[in-house]
Design a protein that fits this description.
CATH class of the largest domain: Alpha Beta
Bound molecules: alpha-L-sorbopyranose
Largest sheet: 9 strands, mixed
Radius of gyration: 21 Å
Strand order of the largest sheet: 16-15-14-13-7-12-11-8-17
CATH superfamily of the largest domain: Dihydrodipicolinate Reductase, domain 2
Number of helices: 10
Distance between the termini: 43 Å
Helix content: 25-40%
Order of helices and strands: EHEHEHEHEHEHEHHEEEEEEEEEHHE
Number of domains: 2
Structural class: alpha/beta
Shape: globular
Number of strands: 17
Length: 370
Amino acid sequence: MKNLNIAMIGYKFMGKAHSNAYLNAGKFFDLKANPVRKLICGRSKDVIPFAKKWGWENYCHNYIEAVRRDDVDIVDICTPNSSHAEIAIAAANAKKAILCEKPLAMNVAEAEDMVAAAEENNVPTMVCFNYRRVPAIALLKKMIDEGKLGRVYHIRAQYLQDWIMDPKFPRVWRLVKALAGSGVHGDLNAHIIDLARFLVGEISDVSGFSETFIKERPLENSDKSGIVDVDDATLFLAQFKNGAIGTFEATRFGGGNKNGLQLEINGSKGSFKFNLENMNELFYLNLEEKEQGFKRILVTEPEHPYVGNFWPPGHIIGYEHTFVNLIADFINGVAEGTPLMPDFKDALKTQKVLDAVIKSAEERCWMKTY
Ligand code: SOE
């Protein structure tokens, strides 16, 4: 079996999730190539113990070295959003396959440059919208494709967290526009927009607004404070090209919700409900059945997507398995030259919705997304 040598740029939270996925994908999935943890890149010396702990063969401090090495086949971008474009374009020009963490870019202009570089160099790309590979979401997609929803009327999507409600929580990179592009909008609305596009269809028009509840925070490793120039909450309404309508809410002030990605979809034949905090369950209402009420599907059967690769029925899986599932699909797609979704071109459509909501909020009017 051939090797696919990976250079990963970034080694914090997503670096850990991706390293774990490279380590385990081959143990649970029939991979068509062997993912090799070749080179981990990080600006600080802390990358050295990370490389040792997670079994990366080498480390470096400059991504240009990583993307240019002949013994690197794949570049995996796990850095803050502000460096996604420069790294991806350098990797595409070096003819590397690319996996990039979400959101694709800081804005549509950067995302379009990334798509152009990938197409000019004909390199495979994928964006790590990992929740498409939650077994319950993959089953939901399958049931929608089988017509279980009928005509779609509504999607109600929320992504609620509460990790920055303490005013003393410092201004980390996700709260700095120059590094993140936006706050909770690009971080969490990105996920529910991607899922809405995946499950319901393309969004044509949006109307949104944002709020920053705490406008100044302590700076990290300093006794000074700084202005917060990103959103703490962004909500928007959406019209879909297929006539469905949607409400979207992303907040980091949803006290009590830790990672509460919640979906409800209503159609002419049925409804579905999902909550990431109970990620092994999917609730389904079949309007064509006499007995009313949502049925709880525990998504752990061997015939359900992905989950049969792990444990017997009822032995639930977790957040980290969504990355194992995604990396297995990514490695096999690169090895066999088969389509990878969502690729940069698909993720550009999500970026267009993100930017349209920001413009709508700024101008306090409805905006087209394309
Ligand atoms: C923080 O909001 C975060 O880590 C996001 O950046 C991830 O994309 C999400 O999956 C979990 O929460």
